[in-house]
Specification:
The complex is a heterodimer of chains A (218) and B (505). By secondary structure, chain A is of the alpha+beta class. Chain A has three helices and twelve strands; from the N terminus they run αββββββββββββαα. In chain A, helix 1 packs antiparallel against helix 2. Chain B is α/β, with parallel strands linked by helices. Chain B has a single domain, classed as Metallo-dependent phosphatases (Purple Acid Phosphatase, chain A, domain 2, 4-Layer Sandwich). In chain B, the strands form five sheets. In chain B, strands 1, 4, 5, 17, 18, 19 and 20 form a seven-stranded mixed beta sheet that branches. Chain B has a seven-stranded mixed beta sheet with strand order 8-9-10-11-14-16-15, with helices on both faces. A two-stranded antiparallel sheet of chain B has the order 2-3. Classes of the chains: A alpha+beta (218), B alpha/beta (505).
Chain lengths: 218, 505
């Protein structure tokens, strides 16, 4: 019986290990929870916020997070996580290349507000994670507390920016906010999968020889 | 365990898994519920004042190094020139425009602008036939003084700046300031050596250098009166704000403040300069809004306290639970120079600065000892305390939030005074030294040189909260000036408190 449970557990762990990102997601942007003392910068339909990070082609971005507090907004307010290529990001809004990926974020409570996503960068390079608001009906304004410096956390941002009233992003290290981007490593190659399957087959054969099947069909 | 049937084992594992998920979910939900209570906003208003600049003395941080397009046009400087546009129409367009964009993103129902929307300070004397200021009654045989042109174009520019707010659900409520109602004999484009000939002598009623005139009040009505009258005519008020104004008063001379002991010796018509109305935000939440002219002709630097007493009592009788009052001059002057030992609080001042209603003081000397009193201000604030109202003002070009007790000691409450004279006018706390080698002054509060506005939100529970938003004189991003945020400006129980307002210390 113990062997049955052992084999079952091994199979579950193997399956879990095969799900991309479920067990091995890592931060490629992690500023940490803000600890700065400056006045929080406001995220609203008239002011957006962004942080820069590096990503590798073939990675899978699985989670986007922003550290926000309620401000004059409410739980349930929405905003978007938009990922832009670095090239052209600081252009005038009308000239800025379209976002490569967008996902809706929902403010639930003070702290990290996360959205599970599934996006693969097509090229290795620098990207911007932007927090943007479509209209005052999405939120009247959420607060983004400031980090103690522009270089904080386990995977510091490469840069920060906020929009002027014209909608154009202004680069500034004076207003760093809390952002996180998690990715999963590339999915296993076919050879790895074959090796794994052969191993599972060996385990199955061992179990069968020990009466595993008989036990379940008795 | 080893003797259990496999099916039952699987069932037990499933149950255990479900239990674990439930526990984890419960922890998560409990965390959410504990972290953030949802109390939806049912009504909100923004408020600020003082967007005009000064053509002779703009804040040095708003100067441009070289406005020529062929060189470094538009670069910030501490020694350049004022933007020609702002020199012509006397607004800090960048600061005020940025503020309006921020307000628009918050989508409040109302915006109360607490005076000094124009530089004004002239005496816009109109021909008698134009007394009501209606343009279509004018004809080419009549002439006007230069001050009319000077002030009317400033009004028009300001109205243009706020016009878009009406398209996005925010109705603008005007409050007169001293730059609208007073004439200063030496203010630009005049000077002490070339004074304004219409208000430069005692014979013309100007005893202190700055005096309110009926001509100026007429100009305010001519340029802002339509916004006030719409509270009754409702050509667009309810469509824009989403609510009907109720119980409107002060739109005629008969219902507006007149001379009395505590109104002061008012001489001019105060219709559309001091007025009030209700808004039923939701069942059980009746809000009362009051606009007062703190520089009426004949009674500069006063609040119409007798008129307010009647107005508040009537509102109370209607079941009003929350009272918000908007005037230009603060009741208690904020001493932004305190950190360096400066005093701007009247009557004992050692540095120049704008005085609030407390600048209107009396002196009594007995046996060589002089004592000071502020009868008008004290009576006004005692009334504010009696009804636990909130007073919003401008005049001082800074932002400050304070709680002040009843100076007469009659009522126990300590109402909030919110100064938001931070809409673009040159900061009162000046840069230190001579520009361009000037530096930021030592600040009493970190946001003394922030362009800022207040957002007041009325929640479903009846709680009233306030947040202050703004940006520095370096024109960075808009931030939440959380130092001044007040989670409970007026509590949900304000109605009950108001009902017991007579409870004294």
């Amino acid at each position: 019986m113990k062997k049955v449970r052992l084999i079952g557990s091994a199979a579950v762990l193997t399956a879990v290990a095969l799900v991309p990102g479920a067990a091995s997601a890592a931060f490629i942007l992690d500023t940490g929870a803000p600890t700065g003392s400056g006045a929080p910068i406001i995220l609203s339909s008239s002011q957006f916020i962004a942080g820069e990070f590096a990503a590798t082609a073939g990675d899978t971005i699985v989670d986007l997070s922003a550290y926000l507090t309620q401000g004059v907004g409410e739980p349930g307010d929405t905003f978007t996580f938009d990922i832009y290529a670095n090239s052209g990001f600081t252009s005038r809004e009308s000239n800025r290349p379209a976002a490569l990926y967008s996902a809706t974020g929902t403010f639930t409570a003070n702290g990290w507000n996360s959205t599970a996503v599934n996006w693969m960068p097509q090229a290795t390079g620098d990207y911007w994670l932007a927090l943007q608001v479509g209209a005052p009906t999405d939120t009247r304004g959420l607060d983004a507390p400031l980090e103690a410096s522009a270089v904080t956390g386990t995977a510091p941002a490469l840069g920060f920016a906020y929009t002027s009233t014209s909608g154009q992003y202004i680069l500034s290290s004076s207003y760093p906010v809390g952002l996180e981007v998690s990715d999963a490593p590339p999915v296993p190659m076919p050879a790895s999968i074959l090796l794994l399957l052969s191993g599972l087959g060996a385990v199955y054969g061992f179990a069968r020889r020990r009466g595993f099947r008989a036990h379940f069909t008795s | 365990m080893q003797n259990q049937e496999p099916g039952r084992l699987a069932t037990r594992h499933f149950k255990a898994s479900v239990t674990a998920i439930a526990i984890v979910s419960a922890i998560g939900l409990g965390d959410f519920a504990g972290a953030q209570a949802n109390d939806p906003v049912i009504f909100s208003f923004a408020t600020l004042g003082d967007s005009r600049t000064d053509p002779n003395k703009p804040d040095a941080t708003t100067l441009l190094a070289n406005p020529s397009p062929t060189t470094e046009g538009g670069m910030p400087s501490l020694s350049g020139t004022i933007l020609p546009q702002d020199n012509m129409w006397v607004q800090n367009t960048l600061a005020y425009g940025t503020i309006l964009a921020g307000i628009q993103s918050q989508s409040p129902n109302l915006l109360f602008f607490n005076g000094d929307m124009i530089f004004g300070y002239g005496r816009p004397i109109l021909p008698t036939a134009w007394a009501n200021g209606i343009p279509n009654s004018w004809n080419t045989a009549q002439t006007v003084t230069p001050d009319v042109i000077f002030e009317y174009i400033q009004y028009a520019y300001w109205r243009g700046m706020v016009a878009n707010l009406f398209l996005t659900g925010t109705y603008v409520i005007p409050v007169p300031g001293n730059h609208e109602t007073q004439c200063s004999y030496s203010a630009a484009p005049y000077s002490t050596s070339n004074p304004n000939p219409n208000c430069n002598t005692a014979a013309q009623g100007n005893l202190t250098g700055k005096t309110a005139y009926a001509d100026n009040e007429n100009a305010f009505r001519a340029n802002m009166g339509d916004l006030v009258q719409d509270l009754v005519t409702n050509l667009r008020f309810s469509n824009v704000s989403g609510y009907y104004a109720q119980n409107v008063t002060g739109l005629t001379q008969a219902s507006a403040p007149a001379a009395s002991a505590l109104n002061g010796p008012i001489t001019g018509n105060q219709a559309e300069l001091s007025y009030s109305f209700d808004i039923q935000a939701q069942s059980g939440t009746l809000l009362h809004f009051v606009v007062i002219n703190t520089d009426p002709s004949g009674a500069d630097t006063t609040a119409p306290t007798d008129w307010l007493a009647t107005d508040f009592a009537n509102a109370h009788a209607r079941g009003v639970g929350n009272i918000f009052v908007f005037g230009h001059k603060a009741a208690f002057t904020y001493n932004y120079a305190a950190v360096t030992g400066g005093k701007v609080t009247p009557p004992l001042t050692n540095s120049p600065g704008p005085g609030g209603l407390d600048a209107n003081y009396t002196t009594t000397t007995v046996n060589g000892v002089t004592t000071y009193g502020e009868p008008y201000r004290n009576a006004f604030w005692s009334l504010i305390a009696e009804y636990n109202a909130t007073y919003f003002s401008g005049h001082e070009h800074t932002v400050n939030v304070s709680q002040n007790p009843d100076p007469t000691g009659t009522y126990a409450s300590t109402p909030y005074q919110v100064i938001v004279g931070s809409g673009g006018s040159p900061f009162d706390d000046k840069l230190s030294g001579t520009c361009p080698n000037c530096t930021e002054p030592k600040l009493t509060n970190p946001f003394d040189r922030y362009y800022a506005w207040a957002l007041v939100q009325v929640h479903q529970s009846g709680n009233v909260s306030m947040t202050i938003h703004g940006f520095s004189d370096q024109f960075g991003p808009t931030t939440d000036l959380s130092l001044y945020d007040v989670p409970t400006l007026q509590p949900a129980a304000a109605a009950a408190t108001l009902a017991k307002k007579k409870a004294k210390k």
